[in-house]
Specification:
The protein is of the alpha/beta class and 187 residues long. The chain is built from six helices and six strands. The chain has helices at 2-18, 22-32, 53-62, 112-121, 151-163, 167-170, and strands at residues 35-44, 64-76, 88-94, 97-104, 132-142, 178-186. Strands 3-4-2-1-5-6 form a six-stranded mixed sheet, with helices on both faces. Helix 3 links the parallel strand 1 (35-44) and strand 2 (64-76). The two termini are 18 Å apart.
Length: 187
């Protein structure tokens, strides 16, 4: 369990090191005025701040954005459950971007389609399920980096990550609506 926790912390640190502030990314979008395609793109993000690497990676290679872009973060609380009226926070970020933060208790299992339906009911500007694409990151871990983990713990964490339950299954995301963007990360 400690290797999983420490490996996730090291991985999060690597992502923070290459992340850029969301305000800078949105300013770049406002300046470049990229082509916007119909539909909604939902980018899952571990952190409720900053620009998710999946957006940066997608935009760098595809150079287009969906009309509606949702950055979705799901957090876990120290309580067994969260009251429904305290579950979601929606923030309009401008440029067609909105951030949704969903809070779940440690005894609850989040469902992304339910989160999106509830967020739409609360005023989120997003298309329906058939016009929504979910973008998820898929990391390939390289154990050659300079993290503080011992070599054997890096290898163990890499194997544990490969065998972890896919996010699509855990979050109930329809598999036919998912695009996975891969990145190699040195630990």
């Amino acid at each position: 369990m400690a290797t999983w926790r420490d490996g996730r912390k090291a991985l999060h640190g690597r992502f923070l090191a290459v992340s850029i502030p969301l305000e800078a990314f949105l300013a770049d979008v406002a300046h470049k005025k990229p082509l916007r395609v119909p539909g909604t793109a939902v980018f899952m993000s571990v952190s409720p701040t900053g620009t998710p690497l999946t957006i940066l990676h997608s935009f760098k290679h595809i150079r287009v954005l969906h009309k509606h872009v949702v950055i979705l973060t799901i957090t876990s609380t120290d309580t067994p459950s969260v009251e429904p009226d305290e579950r979601l926070t929606i923030s309009d970020l401008g440029q067609g971007f909105e951030r949704v933060v969903a809070r779940y208790g440690f005894m609850e299992t989040p469902s992304v389609p339910d989160i999106m339906a509830r967020a739409r009911a609360m005023g989120l500007r997003a298309d329906g399920p058939s016009d929504t694409t979910y973008f998820l990151g898929r990391e390939t871990l390289l154990t050659t980096g300079r993290s503080g983990l011992a070599s054997w713990r890096k290898r163990l964490f890499a194997v544990m990550s490969q065998n972890a339950r896919p996010a699509t299954t855990y979050f109930g995301i329809p598999p036919g609506r998912v695009v996975e963007l891969g990145v190699q990360v040195e630990l």
